# Entry
Amino acid sequence: MTEQTILDMCCGSRMFWFDKNDQRAVFSDIRSEQHVLCDGRSLVIAPDLIADFRALPFSDAIFPVVVFDPPHLERVGPNGWQGKKYGKLNRDTWRDDLRAGFAEAFRVLRPHGVLIFKWNETQIPVSQVLELTNEKPAVWQRTGKADKTHWISFVKNSPIAAQSGDVSLLQYATSRIIELESLLLVEVPETVWPSEVAMVFSQVENAGDLPAHHQRRLQHHINRMWLEKMPVTSIIAAAKSLASAMEKYA
Ligand SMILES: C[S@@+](CC[C@H](N)C(=O)[O-])C[C@H]1O[C@@H](n2cnc3c(N)ncnc32)[C@H](O)[C@@H]1O
# Structure
């Protein structure tokens, strides 16, 4: 089976698709219906799934490409062909609706995924629509009658720390590093007492198997504890516990 890599969030009758049954695409729309247009042609809106682009039923970051061609008219005749073909914007809520649509498009897009957005500004200027997303367009082409149709592509902004799925891992790793650093890097004068440090170090099982940077830090801490005049038994116990923490996160 072909992997479905393209989401068309409001496919309508798939007019602009090169292959209306492209197996790489998931076609969704809020309606499934058929009409006979005034010229006798039939208009078939038959999505693979009925879904609202304001709340898509997909996990985050799964599509490399998303197509978003929402309705662009807020005034259409009740039985006009335009409403049948393109649907209609809600006069009161269209800004919120499209804002939610953009947010959903970028949510389901993979990091660095491409959004292909189409807008016709017969009634609403494209500038008002672009205000509804913080993402920055990459490529922009005007076409059609009086250049009113805009084809705009975006590339999902994905700083490393914001890549979905990596966030919790990154946060976890950062907190472990901070925790370990506070455990290991205590401010002390670097006085080296080699024989005393070596004596305690030799009491710590597996200390010699730790990575070199952990061995150095363990010695540093043993040295610090000597400087603080801790009893030798306590230094050995603390060094063992430090070494086992280091082993765990080596
Ligand atoms: C401009 S048409 C899309 C035309 C399509 N690109 C084509 O090539 O035929 C907009 C489509 O968005 C659909 N739509 C309107 N509101 C929607 C929503 N909230 N969620 C999903 N689709 C919606 C309409 O039913 C309509 O079919």
About this structure: The pocket of S-adenosylmethionine is lined by residues 10-16, 29-31, 45, 52-54, 69-71, 86-87 (CB under 6 Å).
